[in-house]
Write a structure and sequence with these properties.
Layout lengths: L22 H41 L17 H11 L3 E2 L2 E2 L18 H7 L17
Antiparallel strand pairs: 1-2
Length: 142
């Protein structure tokens, strides 16, 4: 008679230890997911409990006339004081690297009109704008 042939592919996955069809592996994955959910819930409870404790301590301190809590005092941390100082100098009529730069009111707010240097810095003193600061007249939108 006619002999049936195999499909030509090897089905070796059920023999591997990580086989997703293996019931013990399915149970292990479910157990690990449950343990992870419980761990996350426990961490959230601890964080919420610590927040409640801190807030109650702050209320008790403020009732006793002590200083306010750190959470109530918002402090700005300036990570770039030099850049902020340079920006203030630029906007209040100062210069950058010896170049006198005046800021004009334009539609390009937030972009500091600082020439790149070299020839462009020299041409800026003469009043000629560099190519990247000239208004576009070709009708193209950016």
């Amino acid at each position: 008679g006619k002999q049936t042939s195999m499909s030509g592919r090897l089905v070796i996955l059920p023999k591997k230890t990580y086989c997703p069809w293996n019931p013990s592996n399915v149970e292990r994955v479910r157990r690990d997911e449950r343990l992870e959910r419980e761990r996350i819930e426990k961490e959230q409870r601890l964080v919420e409990e610590e927040d409640r404790r801190r807030k109650s301590n702050c209320r008790n301190q403020s009732d006793a006339g002590r200083q306010t809590c750190p959470e109530e005092q918002e402090v700005h941390v300036n990570l770039f004081p030099e850049a902020e100082g340079a920006e203030k100098m630029l906007f209040h009529g100062g210069g950058v690297n010896g170049i006198d730069v005046t800021v004009e009111k334009s539609e390009n707010k937030g972009v500091l009109p600082i020439p790149l240097g070299g020839e462009e810095a020299k041409t800026r003193k003469s009043g000629k704008l560099p190519f990247y600061m000239r208004p576009r007249h070709d009708g193209c939108s950016q």
